[in-house]
């Protein structure tokens, strides 16, 4: 028997609310918990991973609440205002320490090494407005300070309108609009890039050269509008478009925020289409989702200078991203199991880069695969094992060799990178997580031994990452 049916949710909400709020108040999720009165486990397996009810809450625009409202109606008794007396604010802080398996060469070029570890205090500090804004309208807005940039900026943001249509045969259709700044941040499952594993990672490690465009490359640099529908809590479909909305970029003539010209890099030509299709099936305590998502981005390379001009005219580089995903969840009284996987295939047509000599090939392929298994006992003790792999066409223009110190270079022009992440977690309270994560590289930028041609091995970039993650 299905645990949650959306058509029954409205009728059952009061009884569910009464039951869940009998739990200790220390277990509340900060912003949404304050709005709904529901404990973390109502919407999450363990934060930030969503369960079925959490996905419904998100699809319905973050608007379910149990707070006293400031209301207004017009002469025809139509609702003009429904504003919570308590603003849905929350904060998050991450404090971390990272150890590289082999220290980096000193950036001054002198024959020495950098420190063996990096402390982030904080690594990240975020402020959220997350919850109902008005009837049928909700938002998840994140402002973040990061220690590597020492700056505050807009982070993942999702603004929604959602409504419910009652259909025959006890079926319901949730439909809505999402305005967001990161392809897949609006998605309901923890398989797509924006909310996929790893949910937290060190910003002090060494990153490989290659990533697909849909895999976070354009995060916070675009604005998207999409329409979606969720039928019978099972079949989900979404279509939308993205435009460039680059942060911190000014027009060199006016000194203002726009319009963008050839001095800006990777500007979308026109609108980039995005699509998503997924099906979720529940039986007992089990939940299975299979789906696909994808986008097409036509980008002007830009970044032009007087010596190497670039314009926002043809040709462009075209990136066709097509991905499949799968997620299985088991939610028991004591045991929680999640298996998640995604595979992204990107075809590049590099008309602009090839013409300018920035790529060696006129077209390339890039593939990214992630497979993750997580187990939690009583939502307190957890362990995760994840495998990741990126493979693609060798291209010395896109993935170049470099002079010493190399580190983030490729001696053979290959993007191939693979490895494993092992993580253990302890949650003394459901809004407090202590994690120890180890990342091992089998291959890095095309090689296992001496991948940069300067003596550094892939395993030298292994990281040990200790994290304290608090939400309040």
Helix-strand layout with pairing:
Blueprint: H1 6-20, H2 30-36, H3 52-59, E1 69-73, E2 79-84, E3 89-100, E4 117-134, E5 137-146, E6 151-167, E7 171-180, H4 213-217, E8 222-231, E9 235-244, E10 265-268, E11 272-283, E12 286-302, E13 317-331, E14 335-350, H5 351-356, E15 363-377, E16 381-392, E17 417-429, E18 432-443, E19 463-471
Antiparallel strand pairs: 1-2, 3-4, 3-19, 4-5, 5-6, 6-7, 7-8, 8-9, 9-11, 10-12, 11-12, 12-13, 13-14, 14-15, 15-16, 16-17, 17-18, 18-19
Report what the structure shows.
The chain is mainly beta. The protein has a single domain (88-471), classed as Porin (Beta Barrel). Helices cover 9% and strands 47% of the residues. It has five helices and 19 strands. It has helices at residues 6-20, 30-36, 52-59, 213-217, 351-356; strands at 69-73, 79-84, 89-100, 117-134, 137-146, 151-167, 171-180, 222-231, 235-244, 265-268, 272-283, 286-302, 317-331, 335-350, 363-377, 381-392, 417-429, 432-443, 463-471. The strands form two sheets. The chain has a 16-stranded antiparallel beta barrel with strand order 3-4-5-6-7-8-9-11-12-13-14-15-16-17-18-19. A two-stranded antiparallel sheet has the order 1-2. Strand 1 (69-73) and strand 2 form a beta hairpin. The longest helix is centred in the first third of the chain and has 15 residues, at 6-20. The chain is globular. The chain starts with 5 loop residues before the first helix and ends with a strand.
